[in-house]
Amino acid sequence: MTYSVALIVGSRRAESFNRKIAEAAVTLAPGSLIFDRVENGGLSLYNQDLETDSSTPPAWIAFRDWIRGADAILFATPEYNRSLPGALKNAIDVGSRPAGKNAWNGKPAAIISVTPGMTGAFGANQHLRQSLVTLNLPVMPKPEIYLSRADKLLDEIGALNDESVTKLLTQFMQSFAAWVARFAAE
Question: I want to staple 109 with a disulfide (CB 3.0 to 4.6 A). Which of 73, 94, 97, 147 is the partner?
């Protein structure tokens, strides 16, 4: 059985370490996971006043439909000021609205957090987990991925160059596939 996974990257930067690491992780995933890259950078800031039958932004509707169509969600996030980036938080808000129509509801999820710094984007990872639990996304508890010194983990063309990280991401993706299958069976 195969499962569709929405891959959402919190960084909007063209040369994002998170995007590159997430793409590397996708190549290491079991064949049971089929990934769809869901862009969130074009979403206007959530404003409940725009949530009407005639004025809901089309980008919000398309994003929600993308999320509803996925069996699971894989997030990759950098850390901004010990938390998650505003664009990612906005995407979470857009997907959870309007009240009672949470597109995220019940979808198994996992988080990869990446930084060129030394903390592995731990703060962003934990803040994201807190929001996802509130929205009823069962977040894979282990293994957790906090990758530090991301600029040293990639070669000049953006491919992983660290065997231990490749092994860790392979194990992570295998665990994620089992996590997704577990919730699909329920």
Answer: 73
